[in-house]
Amino acid sequence: MAKIERHQKDEKLSRIVVHKGTIYLSGLTADDRKADTAGQTRQILQKADALLKSVGADRSRLLCAQIWLKDVADFDAMNKAWVVWLDGAEPPARYGRSKLRVARYPCRNTAYRRRLLISGVR
């Protein structure tokens, strides 16, 4: 049976799960909820970099990204920050959605402009 590694966990979730070389990051949000869309995007992507690095991976190894935006009008600002962050790395498969509905419930904190879920490989 393949080992499942769980990192940075508490009683609710693991921030990172690794199975058979595939990395799953839990949903990421910005710390500064007052930042604009580009600022929140940069914060989230910095978190993704740190989490990936902690398990021996980086943004060049991404498989898929799921993006939730508070408002579809934020798409261009988010996309610009995303492309800068990729910095020439091969882009992953990507899915975007607006209205920030996660697990059937609206986002309780409306200051979050976006959330991101990422998977990749080592």
UniProtKB/TrEMBL annotation:
CDD domains: YjgF_YER057c_UK114_like_2. It comes from Mesorhizobium plurifarium. It holds the Pfam family Ribonuc_L-PSP. Signal peptide: none annotated. This is Uncharacterized protein.
